[in-house]
Amino acid sequence: MHLVEYISHARERTMSDQYNREEIYSRPVRAGKRTYFFDVKATRGQDLYMTITESKRRFDDNGNVHYQKHKIFLYREDFANFEEGFVDAVEKIQELMATGNYRDPIAEREAKAETEENSADETTQGDTLAETPEEETTESSSDDITFEDL
Fold first, then answer.
1. pLDDT (tens digit per residue) in 52-107
2. Which is more confident, 66 or 122?
């Protein structure tokens, strides 16, 4: 085998190995303007690990789309400690939210949806209720809640 053929074959094998490592498992989670990817991969030595990638769609000055990505690597031996820290932080957030000192965008979004649903129900009842003036709506208001608020 010539050197060029050997290098080409090695490159194809390496790319194939990388492709196969990438394809063990991937779970995208869409969250507003972001998408999180939970990917299970294996090292060359067949040790499993996870990458968690946050991907945000952005536009440059010319309007071209690009994706800003942030990635962490989480190795199996760290799963228990990571889970413990994650659960502890979530519980702390729940504790702090219970004080009433912080915004609750989830509750605000649910209340807004319920208000809109009740308003829609009232207007569809037709002749039995007095007509109510339609509220002006805008595409985006300061009351809108997005994942960015969390």
1. 999 998 888 998 988 899 999 999 999 999 999 999 999 999 999 999 999 988 88
2. 66
Q: Evaluate whether residue 16 is within a structural domain.
A: yes
* 39 within some domain: yes
Print the domain residue range for 67. Answer: 3-125
79 occurs within a structural domain? yes
Q: What are the tens digits of pLDDT across the range 19-30? A: 445 569 999 999
The CATH code of the domain that includes 119 is 3.10.450.700
pLDDT at 66: 87
DSSP states of the chain: --HHHHHHHHHHHHHHHHHHHHTSEEEEEEETTEEEEEEEEE-TT--EEEEEEEEEEEE-TTS-EEEEEEEEEEEGGGHHHHHHHHHHHHHHHHHHHHTT-S--HHHHHHHHHHHHHHHHHHHHTGGGS---PPPP--SS-TT---GGG-
Domain count, the chain: 1
Whether residue 135 is contained in a domain is answered as: no
